[in-house]
Fold this protein.
Amino acid sequence: MDILIRPAVPAEYAELGEITAQAYLQDGLLDFGEGDVYLAELRDVAKRAAASDVRVATRDGILLGGVTFVPRPGPMADIARPEEAEIRMLAVARAGRGRGAGEALVRACVERARAVEGCRSVVLSTQRTMHAAHRIYERLGFVRTPERDWNPMPELLDITLLTYQLTL
């Protein structure tokens, strides 16, 4: 059976939150590990779902991962400007990697963006070490926008997020 991308339902929020948190922890993406304040944000799928569109990837009924699609600037957007949608918190469980779930989630976000009236591009932020994600973005036509790179914690000089954009 193929990967199915669909809206997350409340009964999946805890599992998706844990998949997202574990993906970031296991890949060493949180500078402060289990003590990182961002970990609570990663686990809080209900908060994301209340302000954006959370999608999940499943195969044979098993939750493989998820993504937060932000259709326009607002409380869940980090870098989106008017006429831009944003992709956030893309995560695939370690056991589900290499099966196309991450790419399917990104493709679903691009399709959702095309359906948003007035949306002209999709943007996202990523860490320097997320090489597999970078390959997905570039394969789908996203281009680096180094002029938009940013630091979510300016007091820590070594946390610079790279940015990508896809013009629709």
Summary: Helices lie at 13-26, 38-43, 45-51, 101-115, 131-139. The chain has a mean pLDDT of 95.
